[in-house]
Amino acid sequence: MKFAIAVFSAAHAPSSRRALLFAQAALAGGHEIVRLFFYQDGVYNASASVVTPQDELDLPRQWRAFVSEHQLDGVVCIAAALRRGVLNEEEARRYQRDAVAVGAPWELSGLGQLHDAAQDADRLICFGGA
Amino acid sequence: MAKSLLIISRQSPWSGPGAREALDIVLAGGAFDLPIGLLFLDDGVFQLAAKQDAKALQQKDLSANLQALPMFGVEELFVCAESVAQRGLDSNALSLEDARALSAQEITALIDRYDQVITL
Question: Are the Cβ atoms of B118 and A40 closer than 8 angstroms?
């Protein structure tokens, strides 16, 4: 089955942790993930600026490793990311900000990518919504 | 055929960017000519309350964006009748006249009708 996965909660939220576990289980079960889309506070999952206490799970690091290892399409909503200060190099330059929080394997793009993934997938699975 | 998507908007307009960001998904879908529905549920019905004063909160008013929904081709608009009643809003004075009031039972059928659902 083809899954699209949307994450709406911050990196420290249990629902974001569940999203990663679900994604790992989907691939382990032989399914396909057409795209991971991070929206609202979900954009923090892609932030390399998050520092997690040593005895806690570093979810942004785990997401990076997971997406890189499986060469998944990890898209972060650009409008939501800008609003929350989660910029990649290009956006930091565009808006003249010092801090760059997002790099590879993440891509900053628009909401069209969420719709595109929802159209392509058999199931859209959301984590951390209201 | 394009898959249909229902957005369930559950957050009040002034509790954070949630309501605006839910609406942005709807507008983006409308711009792509996708079959999109929008249901206001729970505190989301406050988005339809009349006479809001966004300026008092130094925020931007969401209601103008809501009025633009039909222009974006989004005509499937729904509001939970129970949520409206529970919050003491006048169901005849909601800012989105085209939104159809639904009972809990009708909402169950509505969700069933859509291919994908996002709740925000």
Answer: no
Helical (H) or strand (E) element with B8: strand B5-9
Task: Place domain A2-127 in its CATH homologous superfamily.
Answer: DsrEFH-like (3.40.1260.10)
Q: Are B113 and B3 in contact (CB under 8 A)?
A: no
Residues of A in contact with B32 (CB under 8 A): 112, 115
Nearest to B118 by CA among A46, A41, A59, A39: A39
The answer, as to whether pTM is greater than 0.90, is yes
Task: Report H helices in B9-101.
Answer: 18-31, 63-67, 81-86
What pLDDT, in 10s, does the model give residues B1-34? 899 999 999 999 988 889 999 999 999 999 999 9
Mean pLDDT of B32-50: 95
- List active site positions of A: 77
The domains of chain B, with CATH numbers, are 5-49+59-119 (3.40.1260.10)
What are the structural domain ranges in chain A?
2-127
Distance CA B4, CA A127 (A): 19
- Check A124 against B21: CB less than 8 A apart: no
